[in-house]
Design goal:
CATH topology of one domain: FAD/NAD(P)-binding domain
Shape: globular
Distance between the termini: 36 Å
Structural class: alpha+beta
Strand order of the largest sheet: 7-6-17-18-19-16-20
CATH class of one domain: Alpha Beta
Number of helices: 14
Radius of gyration: 23 Å
Number of strands: 26
CATH architecture of one domain: 3-Layer(bba) Sandwich
Largest sheet: 7 strands, mixed
CATH superfamily of one domain: FAD/NAD(P)-binding domain
Length: 553
């Protein structure tokens, strides 16, 4: 694929894959450094979404530390991030009630005051405008599908996907081959479980020392609520019901903007019950009085879902390799107890950019950017992540009540005694955590009421997702027989439930069962790529521009 003779080639100094917070921060920092030194530096960002921000989904409560360093005057420059946190509440819930956990018991790192509630998608669009104003070239609607390796094994660039390929692989009348974009260095900012990042981690053995990454699935709805119910800056997090003690996760609820409320639910993907349905757990969570009171009388206007990295410091892979580097959630810099990653994604992009700029100034290209992981190790980001490194392993091993309590104690110890070095490893990847269906209890979920709780297809409609019908299916099975012959009898085929968009169905045709993939429903969350117990599903990018079109998410 790398040597297609009629493929157009474009040359840049730096190629960045993904116009999320990490990729945009890296591009902006590169251009800032170039302007400061009077250098001419060409930077390009390739984004698979139809526009910058179209595929961005986050809670979001945003720590402004990275914005303050990157664009110190962002508050005065029309940034859409303008709702400071005013109330910070945390509850442990049971079905009919709950208990408020006072902030005084929380480690200082867990305090959200000084942060902002808002839309990460809107912030990303604004950052895209700042990047373009500095001369960064951004190409939305271009999914990157391949990496160009040189003869010496160094990465020389990437290739965008062909356009106009029919489902049977033939070329339609509008067929256009993908473009090769080469650079002195390539930064991969694809977010959690990016397809190229996944390939590079495996091919280059980047996780040989870090062990398996851990993931969660985050589901989110955006509501417009009556003015009398709106409390701008209110932040609420919960644990406990509706999840059992063995299953990690919880709800979030943030008031921001003009009568907007973000409500969502996170389920850790190391859950063991194959009958668990994250979407339906989210719908159940909204019926709790602590959540429902904020939404009653309001209107749901958007829905989406996304996988998130939860492995923490000990699951961060090797960051730099010949000609390239992983930045942002592609590397896994999310702080699990804070449920925050965008600030660390931006900080990592800025540190990578500084390493790249120094290397290019020194006349280098295609080598290993050793200065980047060295900067990360010495950074405030590393200090933050090391303090919470044991929370996720403790939660996974001891359950929500005991695990979170132990995690809180551990955070306090690491805050008071930062020289502590013990680190708990993750025991196994998320796909290996499911029990057999015969050993698990089915879960009875109530039907949606259409007012507070909803069905999955009406939710997918609100994501704005769209895929050209005749293109090849981008959810590829290594062995098509596994879903019916193995996953169904062993695990009741959990893809029917862990997918938040009803992409996967087991369909009966006479006396035969068939595994059906409704690829047009896909919201690009990557959960299937993570959780399939046989690791038989490989998520690859569809045609550029396809997928969800999130607004204010």
């Amino acid at each position: 694929m790398n040597d297609v003779p009629d493929r157009e080639t474009m040359e840049f100094d730096v190629v960045i894959v993904g116009a999320g917070p990490a990729g945009l921060a890296a591009a902006i920092r590169l251009k800032q450094l170039a302007a400061k030194t009077g250098k001419d530096l060409s930077v390009v960002i390739l984004e698979k979404g139809s526009e910058v921000g179209a595929h961005i989904l986050s809670g979001a409560v945003i720590d402004p530390v990275a914005l303050d360093r990157l664009l110190p005057d962002w508050r005065e420059q029309g940034s859409p991030l303008n709702t400071p946190v005013t109330e910070d509440r945390f509850y442990y819930l049971w079905k009919t009630g709950g208990v408020y956990v006072p902030n005084i018991f929380m480690p200082p790192l867990m305090n959200n005051h000084g942060c902002y509630t808002g839309s990460l998608g809107s912030l990303t669009r604004w950052l895209g405008e700042q990047a373009e104003a500095l001369g960064v070239e951004i190409y939305p609607g271009f999914a990157v599908t391949d990496v160009i390796f040189g003869d010496n094994g160094a990465i020389e660039g990437v290739i965008t996907g062909d356009m106009g390929v029919a489902r049977d692989g033939s070329h339609e009348d509008n067929f256009t081959p993908g473009i090769a974009l080469t650079g002195k260095y390539t930064l991969f900012a694809e977010g959690a479980r990016g397809s190229l990042s996944k390939m590079l981690i495996k091919k280059l053995g980047l996780d040989a020392e870090s062990g398996p990454q851990k993931f969660g699935i985050g589901l989110k709805e955006l509501w417009e609520v009556p003015a009398e119910k709106h409390r701008p800056g209110l932040v609420q997090h919960t644990m406990g019901w509706p999840l059992d003690d063995k299953t990690g996760g919880g709800s979030f609820l943030y008031h921001f903007g003009e009568r907007l409320v973000s409500v969502g639910f996170v389920v850790h993907l190391d859950y063991d019950n194959p009958y668990l349905d994250p979407f339906k757990e989210f719908q159940r969570a909204k019926t709790h009085p602590r959540v429902a009171t904020h939404l009653e009388g309001g209107k749901r206007i958007a829905y989406g879902a996304r996988a998130l990295t939860e492995g923490g410091w000990q699951a961060v892979p090797r960051l730099a390799f010949p000609g390239g580097a992983l930045i942002g959630c592609a590397a896994g810099f999310m702080n699990v107890p804070r449920i925050k990653g965008s600030h660390n994604a931006m900080l990592s992009g800025m540190m990578a950019a500084e390493a790249v700029f120094s290397a290019i100034e020194a006349g280098r290209s295609g080598d290993v950017l050793e200065a980047y992981p060295a900067s990360v190790q010495a950074s405030s980001m590393a200090k933050e992540l090391k303090r919470v490194r044991n929370v996720k392993p403790l939660w996974s091993r001891f359950g929500t009540l005991a695990g979170v309590m132990l995690g809180g104690i551990d955070m306090w110890l690491n805050t008071l005694f930062p020289f502590l070095r013990y680190t708990l490893k993750h025991l196994k990847p998320d796909y290996a955590s499911l029990k057999k269906a015969k050993d698990a209890k089915p879960i009875d979920y109530e039907k949606p009421d259409g007012k507070l709780t909803f069905d999955i297809l009406s939710s997918v409609f609100l994501s704005g997702t769209n895929h050209a019908e005749n293109q090849p299916v981008h959810l590829r099975l290594t062995d098509p027989s596994i879903p019916i012959e193995h996953n169904l009898p062993d695990y009741a085929e959990p893809a029917q439930r862990y997918c938040p968009a009803q992409v996967y169905e087991v369909v009966r045709e006479g006396d035969r069962l068939r595994f059906q993939i409704n690829a047009q429903n896909c919201v690009h969350c990557k959960t299937c790529d993570v959780k399939d117990p046989a690791q038989n599903i490989n998520w690859v990018p569809p045609e550029g521009g396809d997928g969800p079109n999130y607004v204010n998410m």
